[in-house]
Structures are given as C-alpha cells and as structure tokens.
Design brief:
The complex is a heterodimer of chains A (about 325) and B (about 210).
Chain A lengths: L4 E4 L3 H8 L4 E4 L5 H6 L7 E4 L8 E3 L5 E4 L4 H6 L1 H6 L1 H8 L4 H6 L2 H6 L5 H4 L41 H7 L3 E5 L5 E5 H4 L18 E7 L6 E7 L10 E7 L5 E6 L9 H5 L5 H8 L11 H18 L1
Parallel strand pairs in A: 1-3, 2-3
Antiparallel strand pairs in A: 4-5, 5-8, 6-7, 6-8, 9-10, 10-11
Chain B lengths: L6 H7 L7 H10 L6 H6 L2 E7 L2 E7 L5 H8 L18 E4 L2 E4 L12 E3 L1 H4 L7 H8 L9 H16 L17 H7 L10 H11 L6
Parallel strand pairs in B: 1-5
Antiparallel strand pairs in B: 1-2, 3-4, 3-5
Helix pairs in contact in B: 6-9
The chains are: A alpha+beta (about 325), B alpha+beta (about 210).
The complex binds flavin-adenine dinucleotide (FAD), iron/sulfur cluster and FE2/S2 (inorganic) cluster (FES) (2 copies).
The site of flavin-adenine dinucleotide has 30 residues of chain A, from strand 2, helix 2, helix 6, helix 7 and strand 8.
C-alpha cells in the first residue's frame, strides 16, 4: 500500500467536507478498498473512517418504507426481520454474495460502490481504461468470459459485480447522500450507477466528497421474492448471471439482472413482458446485447435462469 | 516436541529484535526514490486493543492490517496469511464477537475492540471443544487453514444459534443446523488439502448433531 494518513470522522458533515480534499477517501468495511490499495489500484493519501457516525441503523420511514444506514453490515441487513419479511429479495441477494466473514464487515454504502472484478482492471501490467483512462481496454479482445453484455461501450465492457445492488435496483431504492457543502439529496438507484461510455473511470453519480448516509426503500411490493445466482461454484464466487424477481399475484412482475450489465440491469420492456413468460422476458431484457465470443453464453444462461424461476414460481 | 527448534519458537526468539524494526524503518525513509516514506514514518498511530483478554498498546503505521498487527507486532502467529486479499479465510479472527478476515481491515480501525484469535480460544492443555473436535475428526492435513477454519466454525455455530440466515437457508425465518448450512457458511474458508468432509464432521459434533 502507498502511505496514507488516517482519521475518524466526528460527524457526517465533517466527513464529507474532509473527503472533498485531494487524495482523501472514505473507508467503511474496507473489504474492497484495502484489497485495491494493496494492489496500488487505489492510492488514497488520506482515509476517513466513517464507521462511527451512527449510520448503522435500520428504521421505518413515514411513507411505509425502510431507511437503511450506509454503515449497516451486509450480515445485519440480510438478517433484519423487516427485510426478511418485506424485502426478501434483498436478503437473498446479500446472502448470495461474498462469504460470512466478508458480509460481517461489508457495508450497504461500500457494497454499492465496490469496483468491477474485470481481471484486467486488477492486473496493473495490463491496459485498462477504467483503472488508467486512455490506456485502452485489455478485455474486449481478451478474456471476457465474466464480463458484461449490456450497457457496455467500446471503452469498457466491465460488469457490475454487486448482488445487493441488483436487488436494490429491483426495489427502486434511493441513495441518500450528503455533500461537501452539507447539502443533502437522494439519487434514484436507476441513476446512481453510470454506464461506461467514454469515461469508464466515472462509475456513479456521487460528487467528490459526497457521503452516502443511507439507502431508502419504498413501501413493500408484496409478491413472491426470488434471487437466483449462477456462478462457477456453488458458493463464494461472483455471478456469471443473476436474476432478482418479484412475482406479483396479478401477473405483474419485475426483474433485475446481475453479471450481465455494466450496471445493475433492469428494463421496462422486460417487466412488461412478464405475463408472456420467461422467454419473452429474456428477449426483452437482452435486447441490444453486445456479447463477445467468450461471454455470448450469458444470453442463453439468462434465458434459462428466467425459465427456472418461472417454473419455481409455478410450483 | 522439539519446542526450541519450532518455527514459533524462532519467531518468538526474534521478537526481541523487533525493537530494532522502527530504526530500520527510518533508514528506509531516508532512502532515495521513495517519496512520501519520510512523512509516513512520522505518522504512526497509537492503537489499543484487547487481544485474547489482554490489553495491548501499539504504535502502528496506519497501513498495518489487523492480521499483520497480530502476527508481526504481537507475535500471535496462529492466525495465518494465505492470500492477503479476502479470498481464503486463513486470517479469520473473531472481533467483537464476529468473524472477519483480518487481512482486509486496518488495525487502527479497531481501537478499543476485543479480538479473539486461535490462541485465545484454547491452549494445548485446555483445548476449545472445536479444537478437540478437529483433532478427533482429522479436520486438517497440513494445518495451514486450520486456525481460520476453527475461528470461523466457532462463529458459525453462534450465527446459527442467533438465527442469522444463510444462502442455504430455505425459510429465512427458520434457521437450523444442517450439513448444507455448514458447507455454505464455511465457504469463505478454503482448504488446499480438501479436509472439508472432516471439518464438517468436527463442526457437527460440536453442534451436538452427531448423536441424533
Ligand atoms: C473474496 C471476495 C468475494 C466477494 N464476493 C462478492 C459477491 O459474490 N457478491 C458481491 O456483491 N460482492 C462480493 N464481494 C465484494 C464485497 O461485497 C465488497 O467488498 C463490499 O460490499 C464492500 O463494502 P465495504 O463496506 O467493505 O466497502 P469499502 O471497501 O470500505 O469501500 C468501497 C468503496 O466505497 C467507498 N465508500 C464506502 N462507504 C461509503 C459511503 N458511505 N459513502 C461514500 N463512499 C463510500 C469507499 O471510499 C471505497 O471507494 C466480494 C469481496 C471479496 C474480497
Ligand atoms: S473492460 Fe473495463 S475494466 Fe476491464 S480492461 Fe476494459 S476498461 Fe478495464
Ligand atoms: S489471508 Fe485473509 S482471506 Fe486470505
Ligand atoms: S489442512 Fe492444509 S490447507 Fe487445510
């Protein structure tokens, strides 16, 4: 790791203000940031520890939803009684991610901001526009099996790795943040993660220094909640394809996808196709896909995963 | 056991030499071509921890992971470094009652925390039931992953007891012991020797599930 200084923030406002200075970064669970710092992919010169700001609570909102503090650990969020009952797809997605040890540290905010698992992003000897803007993309003509087929660009085809974020996308969560000037705002999850375009190193809508304070869920949807993750081994691996779904009693359902998109993937067309069955949903969701020879299999895998979910729901 | 010749003995023997390390650090700081080292050496952070019931105070470079603080500074070498990237679980310790990967957390972030390592669970004279069960069931071969496996296993049984669900839990509201629960919950602990079936057997015994 490159040298850095360390401080504990005393308040949310102070944290955001300090973070706006050059080289400063927040540290929450540290499970992604420290991994990348050891590889010198991330090289902050100052770390602001935001673990002691009281952002670790889960509270009901006046609108009948749920406000999840940014520092709530993945383990606690998955195990929360209300989440289990009313937002089970979120519990399921969290439990499908990482390991028990990692979930004990990983936070809601940090999970949303975790960076891609593209092998070239991790290998500092390789070109990567996301790690080093303008250096090229090693993956497009290289090992792309795990990478995205939707929302990609000629500059970057990295997949978004989070399971949790797929469930939050499905549930129409809002990301609440406080800025360096103390101003507060809420960003719909659909607008939170950015597509790579020409600037794959810019991954989300946060401004410099902006601190996520909570994630807010609207009131529960009801229905049957499922999260199905397909990966190279049964546990402790990132998704090749994942599908989060809520099947409504009225035949109206919604779907979000992981492993295939440059960001957690959801389309109106796929949701609208729900009554027509799994094949129609797959066709709608995959419209515009730009697979490589190595990851084209993800299209069929997505269709099959959806078919399996429909069968499970029918049973 | 030829204790004086063991690796642990050697490491502890060299502990006395550890006082010299900061001096070495300063020498490096002056080395050319390492910008930033000087400033960084000046900024050591004081950290107080309770490790296996004992209060310790350390002066640490903020880059020191909890794993390195335990191994290199406190000479508790039971906790192992496998990958140093959160991928293997060899570094698993219990902090404030929860198992975590000590390689992916900074020691400075744990001011005031209670840490339990394999050395704190039990001793050769007074083994923790999980340690004894690993021996009974041959839950290891080379033993490198074992301290992490045992710390993890102890915490796993507490998690099941506390009703914390896992990916293997069918009904999120009914968490109960099963072999598939153990396999899923222990998936963050990789064993290069593939002692997995015996590890599951050891955990099953401690859970009191092998009598049924
Ligand atoms: C071996 C391994 C396997 C994994 N498998 C999976 C998996 O299968 N599925 C999955 O989804 N994830 C997986 N993960 C990733 C894991 O979920 C993330 O590392 C974790 O969620 C990150 O959370 P954190 O709190 O540790 O973030 P940190 O590492 O502390 O922070 C990550 C980033 O977010 C920023 N940040 C943190 N909190 C805030 C905030 N409140 N406001 C603004 N910025 C903030 C930090 O500055 C940093 O840039 C895996 C990780 C490892 C190491
Ligand atoms: S796909 Fe994106 S992250 Fe991977 S090498 Fe190309 S630019 Fe880098
Ligand atoms: S050494 Fe920490 S997980 Fe491998
Ligand atoms: S016993 Fe050798 S790695 Fe597990």
């Amino acid at each position: 790791m490159r040298p850095f200084t360390y401080s504990r923030a005393a308040s949310v406002e102070e944290a955001a203000k300090t973070a706006a200075t050059q080289g400063a970064r927040f540290i929450a669970g540290g499970t992604n940031l420290l991994d990348l710092m050891k590889l010198q992919i991330e090289t902050p010169t100052h770390l602001i520890d935001v673990n002691h700001l009281g952002l670790d609570r889960i509270e009901p909102t006046a609108e009948g939803g749920l406000k999840i503090g940014a520092m709530v650990r993945n383990t606690d969020l998955a195990a929360d009684k209300t989440v289990r009952r009313d937002y089970a797809v979120l519990s399921r997605a969290l439990l499908a991610g990482a390991s028990g040890q990692l979930r004990n540290k990983a936070t809601t905010g940090g999970n949303l901001l975790q960076r891609t698992r593209c092998p070239y992003f991790y290998d500092t000897r390789m070109p990567c526009n996301k790690r080093q803007p303008g250096s090229g993309c090693g993956a497009i003509k290289g090992m792309s099996r795990s990478l995205a087929i939707l929302g990609t660009s000629d500059a970057c085809i990295a997949q978004h790795p989070s399971d949790m974020a797929v469930a939050l996308r499905l549930l129409d969560a809002q990301v609440d943040a406080v800025g360096a000037d103390g101003g507060r705002r809420s960003i719909p999850i659909a607008d939170f993660h950015l597509l790579p375009g020409e600037t794959p190193h810019i991954e989300n809508a946060l401004k410099p220094g902006e601190l996520i304070t909570s994630v807010t869920l609207p009131k529960p949807l009801g229905g049957t909640h499922v999260y199905r993750k397909v990966r190279d081994r049964a546990s402790y691996a990132f998704a090749l394809v994942s599908v989060a779904a809520v099947f409504g009693k009225d035949g109206r359902s919604r779907f979000a996808f992981g492993g295939i998109g440059a960001k957690p993937w959801r389309t109106d067309a796929a949701d609208a196709a729900a009554p027509s069955g799994a094949a129609a949903v797959a066709e709608a969701a995959l419209s515009g896909a730009r697979p490589t020879a190595q990851n084209a299999f993800k299209q069929q895998l997505t269709a099959r995963t959806l078919a399996s979910l429909y069968r499970q729901k029918g049973a | 056991m030829p204790e004086p010749l063991s690796r642990r003995g050697l490491l502890q023997g060299s502990a006395a030499a550890a006082v010299a390390i900061p001096v070495l650090g300063e020498a490096q700081a002056a080395a050319p071509g390492r910008p930033g080292r000087q400033k960084e050496q000046a900024r050591m952070n004081a950290v107080g921890l309770t490790v296996n019931g004992r209060e310790v105070h350390l002066q640490l470079d903020p880059r020191t992971t909890l794993l390195d603080a335990l191994r290199e500074h406190l000479h508790l070498t039971g906790t192992k470094k496998g990958c140093d990237h959160g991928q293997c679980g060899a570094c698993t310790v219990i902090v404030e009652g929860r198992r975590i990967n000590s390689c992916l957390t900074l020691a400075v972030m744990h001011e005031g925390d209670h840490v339990t390592t394999i050395e704190g669970l039990g001793t050769p004279e007074k083994l923790h039931p999980m340690q004894r069960a690993f021996i009974t069931h041959d839950g290891y071969q080379c033993g490198y992953c074992t301290p992490g496996q045992i710390c993890s296993a102890v915490a796993v049984l507490e998690e099941i007891e506390a009703g914390i669900p896992s990916h293997a839990t069918e009904d999120l509201d009914r968490v109960a012991f099963s072999d598939s629960e153990v396999r899923e919950r222990m998936s963050g602990n990789i064993c290069r020797c593939a002692a997995y079936p015996n590890i599951v057997a050891a955990i099953r015994e401690v859970a009191g599930e092998d009598k049924a």
